[in-house]
Amino acid sequence: MELLIQEDTFKLFTTTSSARNLSFVTSKIPTFNTLSEFKACLVSFFKDIIMSSQDENLEYYESFKMLSFIEKVFQEVAENEGPCFDMTDEIIKGAKQAPMSTMSNYDDVSVFTPEGKVKPLEYIRNTVELGNTTVALSNARMGVIVVHTGTPVPNAFPTQKLFQISDFAAFAFSGMTNDGLEIVKYLVDEVIWHETYKNQPVHHLQLFEHLSFDAAYRTVTSNKRLYGAGGVLMIRNSGVKLVEFEPTGIVQVVKAASIGNRSQSAKTVLENYIDSLEDMSKEQLIEAGLNALRNAHPDEVLCKENIEIWCLEDSVEVIDVERFMS
């Protein structure tokens, strides 16, 4: 019997070890003398694929995508040798007898603690809270971001946590560096797209539209892990705006923000300045940010080696830290 097996029917199985033997099996199909011999070999062959896909930790239900191929094979058999019975049920029955894979999806089950907290969300919050402390303040005229970069390590390059998105925007993040850099790249691409394609400045909340949707989708589904970084964007759009982004997709406009390690201690100080932010000058905003960092890191001396200060007024500028270290 001659079967016209196409190569593209095996695309779904190219990652399995059994798929490497497909040419060997199909080359032997024409040598079968009876249809029963062919069907017995085919059943054994597809069971082997199912077992192999499970051993290599593929999705269990992906194994049954081969059923469309099985129907194609039997259709070709029927065209060459006459009608034959559908073996789909027999193959599924044999496959279900195979042991299930011990590999599970990432976070496929939400685990709750007795306090009613979702474990994956707690892990992400802890990741952000372990990052570098960042303090941001703004009023309608200007904004300031002060970042504590940590104690420099002699044998390692310092990790950059503060980035210029455009001439009128800066972003600081806390958490996993790779995820933070991914967010930075997204923001840069969005700003460039709006300025070049639409020829207009981007809205400070619209800038996070796609990112917020993706982060929220990761929060409520199990096929992707959550973003491991949160951040603060300082941008000029009808005045200076501060936008805080959380890994769960929450985006909100704030007057002052603090993220990272010991951020709650910094927020305690920032609360004292909330009512007077609009009347503050650039120097006063910087001093308020430094006071918040001093409260968060009382045992550490703040200096130019562990502090970065960026200001947004007419454009983004880097402030000389030594001016405020007296």
TrEMBL record:
Coiled coil: none annotated. The keyword Oxidoreductase does not apply. The keyword Zinc-finger does not apply. Pfam families: Proteasome. It comes from the Eukaryota. SUPFAM superfamilies: N-terminal nucleophile aminohydrolases (Ntn hydrolases). Keywords: Proteasome. GO terms for biological process: proteolysis involved in protein catabolic process. GO terms for cellular component: proteasome core complex. InterPro entries: Ntn_hydrolases_N, Proteasome_alpha, Proteasome_sua/b. This is Uncharacterized protein. It comes from Menopon gallinae (poultry shaft louse). The lineage of its organism: Eukaryota, Metazoa, Ecdysozoa, Arthropoda, Hexapoda.
